[in-house]
Amino acid sequence: MSNGGARGEVILEVKDLKKHFNVKDGKVLRAVDGVSLAVRENEIVGLVGESGCGKSTLGRTLVGLYDKTAGEVIYRGEKLPVRYQADDFKKFSRQIQMIFQDPYSSLNPRMTIREIVSEGPMIHGIWKKEEIEQKVGFWLNRVGLAAAHMSRYPHEFSGGQRQRIGIARALALEPRVIVCDEPISALDVSVQAQVVNLLEDLKNRMGLTLLFIAHDLSMVRYISDRMAVMYLGQMVELGPADEVYFRPKHPYTQSLVASNPEADPAKERNRVHQILTGEIPSPVNLKPGCRFAGRCPKAMPICSVDEPKWKEVAKEHFAACHLFETTH
């Protein structure tokens, strides 16, 4: 599979990555099944798809929380381990960090904010004891929180504030890449916008590279340089964010965009909704051919037989669909 036309210096590269889980009766759940992607330095790549498509599993596999079943993850030319050991976490967590989806369960309720933010740098030995107060205060201010609150516990903060604490914890190690695993899905709409604007500002000021995982297409289009679409463990479309959103090529992406509500209530009321029929196949018992074939309104006989090839369908715009293959 192509890397999606990434140009310039590639900081993180995924090559045919697979993450399978063994389930009962010897069956295999193919959560991530052959994903390839190249992310450039100081770029935001948005990753979208329905719940259960493998987005979060991909993110957790990238940072070493899950072992890789097959394929490679390469950071600045260095291949990351298949299974992380303690030394690997210590080495690579300074370069690649993760912001988790749930701001309530991702923070230790028994630790103060000072302890949460300073834990990583203290483990790595990059902060001195006498610097903790000043350094924690700096990062809390950087994410829009008051340094005076560092002695408080997570339960004393709102959801949006907790997510900012999670961002400060990730940034304290000064990583180059951050995997954002649905960082706004548990927040109110107004707070979502604040967190997204904060991430974009930090990316510009610190030169960060972000993989932004979410299911809100309009929010992903707003923050991302490129947008990748996943379906049942595979990438089905990848391209510039505006291109994918306004000119989607794959029928699945088209259905996702069509399901996005209009901002104008009058337009939304009068809009004719395209409803997908058919059930989402199980990732355990996958049939041959295109995984979207059973729900696709444009499906052809070949779609149930052969898996579509990944190809460039417009400039730097890629899709895996038989509609774009010249020969059947």
Total helices: the number is 10
Spatial ordering of strands, largest sheet: 6-7-8-3-9-10-12-11
What integer is the average pLDDT?
Answer: 90
Biggest sheet character: 8 strands, mixed
In N-to-C order, the SSE pattern is EEEHEEHEHHHEHEHEEHHHEE
Percent range of helical residues? 25-40%
Radius of gyration over alpha carbons? 21 Å
Kindly estimate the percentage of residues that lie in beta strands according to DSSP: 15-25%
Shape: globular
Taking pLDDT < 50 over at least 5 consecutive residues as the criterion, the unreliable ranges are 1-6
Describe what you observe in this structure.
The chain is an alpha/beta fold. It is 30% helix and 23% strand. The protein is built from 10 helices and 12 strands. The strands form 2 sheets. It has an 8-stranded mixed β-sheet with strand order 6-7-8-3-9-10-12-11, with helices on both faces. Residues 1-6 have low confidence and may be disordered.
